[in-house]
Every structure is written in structure tokens, then in C-alpha cells.
User: What shape does this take?
Amino acid sequence: DTGVSQDPRHKITKRGQNVTFRCDPISEHNRLYWYRQTLGQGPEFLTYFQNEAQLEKSRLLSDRFSAERPKGSFSTLEIQRTEQGDSAMYLCASSPYVQGVHEQYFGPGTRLTVT
Amino acid sequence: GQQLNQSPQSMFIQEGEDVSMNCTSSSIFNTWLWYKQDPGEGPVLLIALYKAGELTSNGRLTAQFGITRKDSFLNISASIPSDVGIYFCAGQLTRLTFGEGTQLTVNP
Assistant: This one.
């Protein structure tokens, strides 16, 4: 399977704990995006990378959130001191950066539950 | 956060019927995309539109990029039970801005 993969698929944690999620994009894609989706809503943008550079961050990305893409391949999203409001599906997407081609392909997501 | 206005919110149809849903925005986008999402899974790309006025088909799906660049619609013809799911429109500059989704139920 050569699609976007995410790990873990599900994470249950207690409030105050730190969690880290991983995303492996489609191998030729140099752009990688993180979104958050709550029940009954469409995904909301968090941040994106072009290669290893983080080019944009949403205001949704509080200082408890940090994302990295150290070698321009896989990415990690860490949430420190989790709160119940962080419970959501965290989605990763990747796209090629080719003129005229901007399609974003999503992974299966990581479902976070903070108790 | 900002979201597109997508309608209808839900549709209940009989197998074989055609379906139409649309999205409008106060902002201009360079690209419109339509996704389908099943429970517990990530969105799956159905159609991408790049030019104002563009009409694109993918099997039984047809989508159009509005000439004002602020709207798009998706039609599904001759619906089948596996069309069940949530359909999202998304407008793109760099990030994607999503609509709130249309929940489609198809009765056999």
C-alpha cells in the first residue's frame, strides 16, 4: 500500500499526559499537512510542511502543539498536557508540489480520546 | 474556524435516484475538491477542479467549479447503496477549507 499512513489509529490518554502521532506521506510528495476533525464537522487545518520547512500554522495550533518533519519525509505531531478538548480525529494529508497539481490525499487518521 | 456553506446537511434517497449537493463561500479559491468519508476513516478524494467553469466527471460523479470561483456542486447519478457516507467540499489556496459535509443515506 503506497498511500498515506498514520500511527497509531487510536489513542486513549489521561488528561495532562503527552501524546505523539506519526504520519508517513506518499513517498514522492513533498508537502505534508495536519488537520483536526471533531464529530459532525469538516476537517480544520493545523499546519503544513514543504519538505522539512514548516510554512504555515493555524491559530488552532496552541503552544501545547508541536509538529516536526525533520528529514522531509515522515512527520510527528505532539500534544503536551492534553486536555479533554483535544479529543478529535487527527488527519494527515500529503500532496505533490507540482505546478497545477494540488490534490491532497489523506491518511486514515488517529482518533484521540482524552479522559 | 472558517468553513464553507455546504448544503444540504443530509439526504435520504432511494437507490437509483440522482443526488446534488453544493458549496458556497465568501472567498475565492484556486481549486475545489470533493471528498467522501466513511466512519472512522480519512476523507477519500473523489474529484479535483482547477479552472473556473470547469466541469469534470468521474464515473457516476460530476462536479463543477463555479465561474465566480466561490462555489461548486457535485452530482451523483443513479445512486447505489455503497454511495452512503459523508461528502465534503473543500476549497484550496494552500490549506484546504472544508464544508460541514452532506450525510447521504441510500435506501435499497
Remarks:
- The mean pLDDT of chain A is 93.
- The two ends of chain A are 33 Å apart (CA to CA).
- Chain A touches chain B at residues 4, 6, 33, 35, 40-45, 48, 55-56, 58, 60, 91, 93, 100, 102-109, 111 (CB under 8 Å).
- DSSP finds no helices and eleven strands in chain A.
